[in-house]
Design brief:
4 strands; about 100 residues; about 40% helix; alpha+beta; four-stranded antiparallel β-sheet; Alpha-Beta Plaits
Length: about 100
């Protein structure tokens, strides 16, 4: 069953964020993930939403999504991101 990583947040330094994007995309691909949405236009229809940036990544399974997050490749990318963007990440089972 597919699983989805959903990230929301705010990029504080777009130029420095590009390095994170490149590293994270490579780690996502290595773990079987594919982008479904990646920071395009969004609109809050109800309630409050944590940040203007939204990313949705589909993985083959919840285990593969966890493997991606805990991988050394993604953790290296994450270190680059911590100072330049504030993100919220969740993973959720698909239907």
């Amino acid at each position: 069953m597919p699983a989805y990583l959903v990230a929301t947040g705010t990029v504080k330094n777009p130029e420095a964020y590009q390095e994170y994007r490149t590293l994270a995309a490579a780690a996502i691909a290595r773990h079987g993930g594919r982008f479904l949405a990646r920071g395009g236009a969004s609109e809050v229809l109800e309630g409050r939403f944590p940040g203007p940036r939204v990313v949705v990544v589909e993985f083959p399974s919840l285990d593969r999504a966890r493997e991606f997050f805990h991988s050394s490749e993604y953790q290296a990318a994450r270190e680059k991101r911590l100072a330049v963007a504030d993100l919220n990440l969740i993973i959720v089972d698909g239907v």
